[in-house]
Design brief:
two-stranded antiparallel sheet; 8 helices
């Protein structure tokens, strides 16, 4: 946990340092958003954009650390806290990666943004699957629907399945570049379908348990 915490802190600091170092070389209006076709379709002023992702990462990490500390089921959270801290570090890495890609593009190095994002998204999905497979009942992390929160057994089954589905989604996401302009589909569709199915699955398992 200490290693993961240190890595997260270094990653957040690196994102701010990267912004400071790159600022003199960037245009006053920067590309900030790309469409599914890879074309830029949004711009922002330099200063807000340079510090948007670092600030977002800092806030998200802060919330992810704070909320479990006030969870009534804190003991359950502690049982998978090492994996949770590793996930936070992976998320911070993902945010820094997006930040670096944005800066590199605005320095004049053009590339297909979706292709560059695909492996990072795949890693994030996979680590989400690892985390889901280890979670215990709590109020902040995981598939928190009435049926999982009402039954530890349903929670366990749902999250074991969720871990497998998100890992499979990670593999499917890697195929995105082969779909060209439709590449967003294998990235988004598996996650949406997996999330929807997990809610349905938890409801069905809860009904079986009641009977």
């Amino acid at each position: 946990m200490k290693t993961a915490n240190l890595a997260t802190a270094i990653l957040i600091a690196a994102s701010f340092i990267l912004s400071l170092a790159a600022a003199p070389y960037l245009p006053e209006r920067m590309a900030s958003h790309w469409g599914a076709d890879g074309e830029v379709n949004g711009y922002m002023p330099k200063t807000p954009l340079l510090y948007l992702i670092p600030a977002m990462t800092l806030v998200i990490v802060g919330l992810m650390r704070f909320l479990p500390s006030i969870d009534p089921l804190k003991a359950n959270v502690q049982s998978f806290m090492p994996e949770y801290e590793r996930f936070i570090a992976v998320l911070a890495s993902f945010m820094l990666y997006i930040h670096a890609l944005t800066i590199i593009w605005n320095l004049g190095v053009t590339f297909d943004m979706l292709t560059m994002l695909t492996p990072a998204l795949s890693v994030l999905y996979f680590r989400t699957g690892v985390l889901l497979g280890q979670t215990k009942p709590n109020w902040w992390i995981g598939v928190r629907v009435p049926w999982t929160l009402s039954s530890p057994a349903v929670w366990e089954k749902t999250h074991k399945l969720g871990g497998k589905l998100f890992k499979a989604s990670a593999v499917l996401a890697l195929t995105a570049p082969a779909f060209g302009a439709w590449g967003i589909i294998p990235i988004i569709a598996p996650i949406l379908l997996s999330s929807g199915y997990l809610m349905l699955y938890s409801y069905q398992e809860y009904q079986k348990e009641k009977k």
